[in-house]
Design brief:
Shape: globular
Oligomer: single chain
Largest sheet: 4 strands, antiparallel
Distance between the termini: 15 Å
Structural class: mainly beta
Strand order of the largest sheet: 2-3-4-5
Radius of gyration: 16 Å
Length: about 210
């Protein structure tokens, strides 16, 4: 039986809408809220280290592997990129969609960022100086709820709240129809089972200003 969840932090004034651990900053994780803020925390001391404040409700966050960059997706379709170590103003502000950015997922090597949205598509951005889009993945009939990269970064699988899994070529954004049973995945947030699809749909449900683990 899994261990009971326990309170790790409490401090956001609004609902917590996203949380993620840094793969490169030891014991550091980030949480985002409806009140336009992302907080950095130390998981050992439970201490708040910094708060980024801006206009807009947070809908998704992700740390870039091999970097201190923290991507923040907003309800109205804007992507912000911060330096979690320097902790200054946004490095980049990119308009990705007109509706909510529901999922952010970096490729294993940190070279690409997948941005899923309520517009039922996935934008693939080249991470770095400009964060420009290089591919557009279309075909879903619901809001994107999860995205996974293959271990080599060549394929993504995306899940929507219409209980569907689609596969796309990362370089071109082309929908793939051939089976990918032998593909190794860098993460497993998407799943082809109905129960797991429902779980990933519910994963974005806001909580009341606190984070548990």
């Amino acid at each position: 039986m899994p261990a009971a969840a326990h309170l790790v932090t409490e401090g956001h004034a609004g609902k917590v809408t996203a949380s993620v651990f840094s793969p490169d900053l030891p014991h550091i994780f980030a949480t985002g809220s409806y009140l336009g803020e992302v907080a950095l925390w130390n998981a050992i001391s439970h201490r708040r280290l910094h708060t980024f404040r801006f206009s807009g409700r947070v809908s998704a966050i992700a740390f870039r592997p091999g970097s201190h960059e923290l991507a923040v997706g907003l309800e109205k379709g804007t992507l912000l990129v911060f330096d979690a170590k320097a902790r200054g103003p946004p490095l980049r502000t990119i308009r990705c969609a007109r509706q909510r950015l529901s999922v952010l997922q970096y490729s294993p090597d940190g070279s690409a960022l997948a941005v899923g949205s309520a517009e039922m598509d996935v934008h693939l951005l080249r991470a770095g100086n400009q964060y420009r889009r290089f591919a557009h993945c279309k075909g879903h009939s619901g809001t994107i709820t999860a995205v996974d990269f293959s271990s080599d970064g060549s394929v993504i699988q995306s899940c929507s709240n219409a209980y569907e899994i689609l596969l796309f070529d990362v370089k071109t954004g082309r929908l793939l129809v051939q089976p990918q049973r032998d593909t190794a995945w860098a993460s497993s947030s998407s799943s082809s089972s109905w129960s797991s699809s429902a779980a990933c749909t519910a994963a974005g449900t806001p909580s009341a200003g606190r984070t548990c683990a």
